[in-house]
Amino acid sequence: MGKVLLSVDKGTTNIRCVVFDTAGRILSIFRRDNAPTYYPDGRVEQDPKTWEESLMSLLSEAARFANSQDDDVCSISLTGQRSTVIPLNGQGAPLHPAIMWQDTRTDEICSDLKKLESVVFRKTGMRMTSVFSAPKMKWFKDHLPDLYNKTWKMAGIQDYFILLLTGTLVTDRSLASRTNLYDLETGTWSDELIAVFGLDRHILCDIVEPGAVVGYLTQQVASITGLPSGIPIVSAGGDQQCGALGLGLLNTKTVVANIGTGAYANRLSEKPVYDPKMRLYCNVSAIPGKFITEAQMLTAGVVYKWFHEEFYPSELQQSDLFAEINAEVKTSPPAANGVILLPHFRGAASPYWNPNAKGHFCNLDLSTKRGDMARAVLEGISLDLAENVSLLRKVGSTVSTIHVSGGLTNFDEFVQIIADCLGQPVIKNHDCEATAIGAWISAAVAIGICGTYDEAYSAAVNSSDSQTFWPIPERQVIYALLRQKRKKLYRALTKKMA
Q: Cis omega (within 30 of 0) on the bond before 351?
């Protein structure tokens, strides 16, 4: 009888449960689509009950798989999206739909507190924006005071999953560092920042290290799912921190980019890094005691998905859904016959941090094909990524290695565009489950399967099973010029719309 570990990854639009063996090999993947509701006024919400139902269903399916293979489940490792807020009552039940990380209803709150943004940044390494948790908590207090007064804790999704599985409610440092309330230097909640947002300390969860065993599976959940009670539950860290770990962010000379609904480029540091212009963020890493400098794009893969849904109606099977659009991208030349996209469909994150920015297609004429527009989407994402990687180069030592992951990187032409825009080789592991792998690494260390994070990474990731994309010189020239043109275009549009 073998042993297996489950990694549960709650993304923005789905929940996945990945079954690993103790050597870090993926045995099976189970998934439930679970998208939030997007409202025209900028609200993005979801009923936490749908997460509970999907979680229990996935764990049941994983348990049946393990039993069919005569394997024992020895751990569940949790990772997921960050900065979503769920108010819970004293019994741990949600009092309101979750306010998701992309929700922009708190823009006015952030604007009103703008004069204090430098105070927040000096302690947290983070700007004050609607992405993060504290403004959402303040929104509940300002707009729904009765609900706020009934709130026991303001939890994130991963915290909520911990509560569902163990009966205990805690948050790990990597998640706490995405709230605008966590002091990077002291490693504690900041009373000064709690006062800035007018909150009460008692609504915040107790803090634990990422990679900690946070409790054990309850008998109640065991009876629902068929899993054994008492197995350890590990809070592996936020999804981007786990994705960075799964991509090999183990030293300060590597940059990793995880490109999903949004996109994140990260590099590791031994101490907090504070960008003087507040373009980059600093978070706690999934590796205890380490930090991550992060550049963020709010919309990446979701734009390509949107364009596909609107312009490529198809009845093909799921595995072939993107075949047509991907083929047409290849027929369009670099620079997409002049079509330019600014992919700021929910505002611009780093380096601009402009919540009012919009997505723009430019330079269309009667010769423009939808394949040109599709290619412009991928180029827009890649050039924003290149802009952010250039900033990461400036805040640390030389960048010697760049790794990429995420659903869009399954399309090789997209990865080639990234390499051309960066002007540096890009490494893509053939296994794109970086976030789940990072969660497995965290659990493998936590329960003693591996002694170190480096050892666990080496066990899980076969370095020979990767592909390096080298920049094509003539494309580099094209994209360097396009990058400058896009900067001018962004400035002109921002000035015109001000």
A: yes
